[in-house]
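User: For my dataset I need records formatted as: sequence, then structure tokens, nothing else. Please produce one.
Assistant:
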Amino acid sequence: MLRSKISGIGMYVPKNVFTNNDLVKYMDTSDEWIQERTGIKERRYADRTGETTTTMGVEAAKIAIERAGTTAQDIDFIVFATICPDYYFPGCGVLLQRAMQMKEIGALDVRNQCSGFLYALSVADQFIKTGMYKNILVVASEKHSFGLDFSTRGRNISVIFGDGAGAVVLQPTENVNSGILSTHLHSDGNNAEILAMYNPGTHANHWLNGKELADFENAEIGDMFMSHAMIDKAQNFPTMDGQAVFKVAVEKFPAVIKESLEANNLQTSDLRLLIPHQANLRISQFVQRKMELRDDQVYNNIQKYGNTTAASIPIALCEAWEMGKVKEGDLVCLAAFGSGFTWASALLRW
């Protein structure tokens, strides 16, 4: 049976380090307040004009391609996951294809927020299994810092997120003891507005479930996409009900991890490493206790990078591999939960 395996992995984080104390200059917060709620000590911010979501993805991709022992010209398909595209359109996939001077291959963009990398990995896995493609580049990259509200008003969200990119190259293998064993994808849009960025957008109904999504009062037709009223009311920034997200995340995270293990007749004791999406250290710790996993079975790095949404899993996986925490034959579970709500898992044998 043909399987897909990760043959190369890479990561890139900007050089600009912003500690919690650095954020005190912009908002009413403290290192203690941030660490207590999120576990984050610092994060990386891309250069305002010198780096983009695409350029960071390119840097991660270069490393992954080199480690896979292949070249950019050998890549025959791209899947790019991000919620921070360079442009509203076109997507980052084609921009990366251009930047890396690849052949005229297909490029697919995935917009599944924190679960984006796992959705992208699952799509690539299916293409490999069918034999349609043999060298697929999966990239997840985020530049959150350009679109956050760095004021006390927005601190509940702005202190959480950081910038960075991760990438893997998927290739086929016939080795039954290697590769992606299964992927599991889920969604529930009933509470989509709990964690969302409403504007700019094309929604016509500015009230939804009692929440004001945008202010269209006295707006001309050309102002509907983005108006001064939206900006004045900070409606062009992400919004989140943190407690509500936490409540659902700690339910769905363990469930989707368990689903992947049961699908392969395995148990938590078989896991060498669980790499959760780096959403919040408190969520990861809750999931670890609920799954009865040892400290050495879970890898977290949100403390130094913050939440890089779609990029967080490939960054953490790459770092864990570089540190020798993931070796050939190890059973690794990747799991994510995020806006949508979407959640997903992938179980693989390294």
